[in-house]
Model the fold of this input.
Amino acid sequence: MSINILFYALFLSQIILISYYYPKQIIKRVDGVLKNFPPESYPKLYPVPVEKVIASKTSYKLLNNIIIVIGLVLLTIHVYISADYVGNKKVAEGLPLMFGMVQFIPFMLLEVSGCRQFKLMRKANKSTSRTADLTPRHLFNYVSPLSVVLAVVLLLAFVSFDLYINNFTITSDLIIKVLTLCLVHALFIGLAIWHLTGKRLDPHQSIEDRSNQTEFSLQSMVSVSIFLSLFLMANSAVDVYQLYSLEIIINTLYFQVIAFFSIGGMLKKTHIDKINFDVYKADNSTT
Amino acid sequence: MEITIDIEDPMPLFTQVVEQIKSAIINNKIRPGDSLPSIRQLANDLELNSKTVAKAYKLLERDLVIQSKGYRGTFVHPEALVNSKMDLNSEVLAQLNSAISACRTAGVTDSELRIAFSSAMNVKNN
Done:
């Protein structure tokens, strides 16, 4: 019963953190940009009319509100179902993961919308001058070697741990987990290479802002890698040591940690006070 | 340290990159031993073709302004400051003018000079 109460509290916290608190911060940030950097003074920042930005903001808010309602309904259903179960049993253990993926949909749509905006910015950019930094961007300029080593060690530790608890037999479960890890890390490596040597999406972005963005992205990828390995290890341990009732707790905690390091990190690291908005002014020709 | 190029400038893009890097060295913005971005990074940042930046780097390496150290990357040459100030074009022009004047004094005609120059260049290329 106490595990159930703990889960209700944590799942409620997952709903509030990912679908209420962070979206509220993002909306506050959009409002701050609209108020302090209006289109009249910063035309390069608005390749689309302000009305469209406001409409997107409203849709984003609405989508998150719908997800909150869905979350609360799911929680109520879970309270009702889990009341019949007692002891160490799995009860809809995939709920936090499935719901967490739904919670991330508005953030993904926001990313897609951002990419579209940058594409329009590049199209509208008539400047003939191009600026580059003569400082090379290396991985360890942005992430400490220790955290990268820790991520790699934890990856290997997960595989060793899973083999150990399964008496060194390669199970289909392990193969699926290793394949998932390979795919996720291939994506991370691709993204890291793109951040370090690829083209910038925002044609007006200052070199310092790009550097901050690269730093945040690389650090968040390393953090996600570390927590993914820990999560998978905990997941394997739950099955082997028959701690089934804990699985749902681990799942909800995992999603909140991921949200904290990705969305929370992004909001903290790329705060509007730290961004150079002068590059978006009409009279600024140096891009 | 930033460099800026203008894609509508009549000066070729690779020359602009070469001049900007030399200028950064002369103005002590980058120093001997400093590492430089990879060709891919610089090309993407300047929105240029990688071959353009590779050509600029090749010319800078030839002039001993930068040096490539394999997988470790590209670095500013220890003698970069002196070598950046040297104008190779005017050096070549001075040498050629002196040779042409000597040939003309000896009575060689312009067409003979052109043929000789072309043969000499072909010999070098072969």
User: Anything to note?
Assistant: Helices of chain A lie at 2-36, 50-82, 95-124, 139-142, 145-165, 172-197, 207-240, 244-269. Chain A has a mean pLDDT of 88. Chain A has eight helices and one strand. The radius of gyration of chain A is 22 Å.
